[in-house]
């Protein structure tokens, strides 16, 4: 991505929604059981997130459907029984189901690095009747070696001053993480930069190339709270701070420069689900 600077913030859409009903076990006819979600899958791991995919369950009128709400849970062990389901952690604010048969995608953020998680899902119709427990796939977040990429051989590239002589600093709200890179701006290791709370994260994969305008290698990336107020669309409000992302040629530079990051970095911003307004249907990062 190429940018002079980007303003990032968590926004939410406020649209009519349906209140969640109590999650009761289906007392099952065969038709309702056929609406069970069986294709839940986990993929696209990052250091702190996993992506879930599944198909919105088919309706079985007039007995069940269409789906009106989801209950999605995760655990460090498989979720295959009612007891395991009840003991699992419930995701806050799951998405509103799409029409029957539609592909669904959800990025689960705020996970621990180098950790295996198991997921499961149920769906309920307008009458509050829940489908049986889905399959329980697993996914593992990426592992970070630590030390800002310094130490040992990385992908056959020795981390010597000759091979990786440049240091890139990522300053996230005053918490600085460093990673070594080549003279051409290629990172010699993965970089996981967090703020002091550990809730906001900037991630770069190994071999990512970062370059300022004029083919200048940056020495500082900074994510900080901006002082600007952004306009929002109808039924949309900003949740939490607005962040500014800037790149500099040196730590003492005061004027940010346009930067190209390839492949793109990942920015994860957290929020408090309990502070979302009523009838929130979507939370996303806008830039």
Protein model, in words:
- With about 290 residues, the protein is mainly beta.
- The protein folds into two domains: about 150 residues, no CATH class; about 130 residues, Immunoglobulin-like (Sandwich).
- It has two helices and 21 strands.
- A hairpin with a 6-residue loop joins strand 14 and strand 15.
- The longest helix has 6 residues.
Features of this protein?
single chain, 287 residues, mainly beta, Immunoglobulin-like, 2 domains, disordered N terminus
Largest sheet: 6 strands, mixed
- How many domains make up the 3D coordinates? 2
Distance between the termini: 12 Å
The proportion of residues forming helix, as a percent range, comes to under 10%
**Total DSSP helices:** 2
Proportion of beta-strand residues: 35-45%
What's the helix-strand series? Answer: EEHEEEHEEEEEEEEEEEEEEEE
Extended strand count: 21
- What assembly state would you assign to the polypeptide chains in this entry? single chain
Structural class: mainly beta
Low-confidence stretches: 1-8, 11-32, 146-161
Query: Which strand order spans the largest sheet, edge to edge or round the barrel?
Result: 13-12-17-18-2-21
Question: What is the C-alpha radius of gyration, as a whole number of Å?
Answer: 22 Å
Rounded mean pLDDT is 81
Query: Which descriptor suits the 3D outline?
Result: elongated
């Amino acid at each position: 991505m190429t940018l002079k600077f980007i303003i990032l913030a968590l926004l939410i859409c406020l649209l009519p929604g349906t209140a969640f009903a109590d999650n009761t076990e289906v007392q099952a006819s065969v038709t309702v059981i056929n609406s069970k979600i069986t294709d839940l899958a986990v993929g696209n791991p990052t250091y702190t997130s996993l992506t879930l995919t599944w198909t919105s369950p088919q309706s079985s009128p007039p007995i069940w459907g269409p789906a009106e709400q989801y209950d999605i849970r995760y655990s460090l062990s498989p979720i295959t029984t009612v007891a395991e389901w009840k003991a699992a952690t419930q995701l806050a604010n799951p998405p509103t189901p799409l029409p029957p048969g539609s592909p669904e995608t959800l990025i689960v953020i705020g996970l621990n690095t180098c950790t295996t998680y198991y997921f499961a899902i149920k769906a309920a119709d307008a009458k509050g009747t829940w489908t049986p427990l889905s399959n329980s796939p697993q996914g593992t977040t990426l592992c970070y070696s630590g030390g800002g990429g310094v130490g040992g051989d990385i992908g056959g590239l020795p981390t010597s001053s000759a091979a990786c002589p440049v240091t890139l600093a990522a300053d996230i709200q005053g918490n600085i993480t460093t990673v070594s890179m080549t003279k051409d701006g290629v990172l010699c290791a993965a970089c996981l930069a967090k703020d002091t709370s550990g809730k906001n994260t900037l991630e770069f994969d190994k071999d990512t190339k970062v370059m300022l305008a004029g083919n200048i290698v940056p020495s500082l990336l900074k994510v900080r709270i901006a002082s600007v107020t952004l306009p929002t669309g109808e039924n949309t409000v900003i949740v939490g701070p607005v962040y500014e992302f800037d790149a500099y040629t040196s730590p003492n530079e005061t004027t940010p420069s346009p930067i190209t990051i390839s492949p793109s970095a990942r920015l994860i911003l957290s929020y408090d689900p309990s502070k979302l307004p009523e009838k929130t249907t979507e939370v996303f990062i806008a830039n």
